[in-house]
Design brief:
This protein is mainly alpha-helical and 70 residues long. The chain contains two helices and two strands; from the N terminus they run ββαα. It has a two-stranded antiparallel sheet with strand order 1-2.
């Protein structure tokens, strides 16, 4: 699955202030079932277990579903 990050892997703000979040990753799946299947793999669990080693400021997870034709 593709992963995309902002410039340098960091997020930016429109007002020039320090962004609320340092890094952002977007994971794309063809549908919700595929996302659930992908996130249930042993490899994905290993990634999740590793967050404590670098996400010292906490972690925010969002799940969104695209709708429409565009």
């Amino acid at each position: 699955f593709p992963i995309s990050m902002g410039k340098g892997g960091t997020t930016t703000s429109t007002d020039g202030k320090k962004p609320q979040f340092y890094r952002q990753a977007e994971l794309y799946f063809p549908d919700t079932a595929a996302a659930r299947k992908g996130m249930a793999t042993e490899a994905f669990k290993k990634v999740g277990d590793d967050f404590k080693n670098f996400a010292t400021g906490g972690l925010v997870g969002l799940f969104a579903v695209e709708t429409g034709t565009e």
